[in-house]
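Exercise 4. Each item below gives a protein and its sequence. For each, produce the structure-token representation.

Item: PIGQ acetylglucosaminyltransferase (Alaudala cheleensis).
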Amino acid sequence: MVLKVFFPSCCSSADSGILIGRWISEQSSAVILAVVHFPFIPVQVKQYLGEVQRVTKVNVSVLGSWSNSKQEKEESLSEFLEDLGTIFCHEPWIQISKEGDSKFWSCSTLQKHSENPQEEEIILVYYDQRKVMLSHLHPPLDTAGQGAEDVSKLSAIFDTVARSQVLFMTDRYDDGPIKLTHWQSDGVEASIIVELLKQASVPACMLLTFLLSLVSGICRTRVLKFWPLSFLWSKLSTCEQLGHRLQHLQVISSNKKAQNQKQLMRKANIFVSLLTDVALGILLMSWLYRKNRIGHLADTLIPVADHVAEELQDLLQWLMGAPAGLKMNRALDQVLGRFFLYHIHLWISYIHLLSPFIEMILWYVGLSACLGLTVALCILSDIIALLTFHIYCFYVYGARLYCLKIYGLSSLWRLFRGKKWNVLRQRVDSCSYDLDQLFIGTLLFTILLFLLPTTALYYLVFTLLRLLVVIVQGLIHLLVDLIDSLPLYSLILRLCRSYRLAAGVKFRVLEQQDGKPLRLLMQINPLSYGGVVQTYRLPTYSCYPRDSWASLCKKLFLGELIYPWKHKGDKQN
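Answer:
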């Protein structure tokens, strides 16, 4: 049988004493947690271990003895260490000794109460106690079979060290009857700033929770469910982002303790994401209000809107002629062209009516950047949607007219073939038509077919303009989703302290010699950056339906609408 002893590297220079840790019988493994030095009273050691077991729920016991003879090995000391096995009664009793500055260690086991003692092969594994305790093991997602068993064995080692944190809270400066050596024996690792922030976070979280509950109560009132407010709340991406950030604030201000490591990391990622978002928003706001950039932006906005309107007028004049040498239906072409030109005239009047107030609007909109860069980007997306509303109207008119003709032609084409659409059974059935019906159907089919190129050209032009606006808004929302979902805290942790995110371990051979135990060094393999993003990515919302290319092409061909804002059915988790 192979006996595995996990020994903390921080105890390699400790004075002689006894080894305390956990014995995992299923794996024939002993996890050494600390060394208790001489002198000590066995009764006090047992009482101390009983308190540790009660707090940590880990079966901590005395596993063996540790001898670090800096001079020649004394026989009396070795006999005394062997006799300790009769006091603490653990099978097997592990004896580890290090002689002077020699790199060779000896490790043996005693089985006094066994009738047939077997000679065991011993593997001595060194591990960094600090890294193992602070790390969290992330097994691969596709572990199965033997791989899953190996992960569970490693998890037992990591869990034993992590749950024994109370054992590491005493150092050599404490006035106690028991002196221990572990990774914090020279002093407990702590930060005054962190402790002060922990104390100050309690009242701050209580105040923030109260304010958020008040805001949530206002948002859930019936006032926001009436038509104008409910429409704006469901359509504007700024309202969606504010609601999303409100949920994030409720998560981080909750006084409920995180149940596991993943929930803790999620809170930390949300907190860092909020801080980064607000910091970027404040930088943007300081840039906007410096050197009167708001005034320059307002002075530029009206000429740009006029230039876009002039370009649309030129485009419509081109369509009303002979675009690309195509022969259009002149009557329908003139009607559609004048109809859209009248809308552009209304739009220009509307923009010039708002021109005295644009600088004031932009000044107040710039203040919203203090809520975060994502809120400012969502406001920019909504402003683009409002400024291009006439393009959206042109697209809707063209799409509806094109869709009507496509469905009319498909229905009349079924009439020629002696078919009809059965509404009740949702299928195409055979049908007999008389001569008058076929004659009227032929006339209507001919009229719609010859008017289709003119309608299709207007629909194609305005669809391309609409897609251009949708692409710009989509890029803005991609940036918003990136800021919302990127686990910044986990990525910083992976960069600075990669051992905190452990994907597994690797073993390096330190010594392999006949008659000596095999000595290995356990090193932590950090989680990859892609694995960090996949594991801790924050949930976001999407303002656009994520259709496939085939579905998008089908919508464009049939004339179905591409919605500019988020609507029912497009919610993303």
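Check: Residues 286-463 form one domain.
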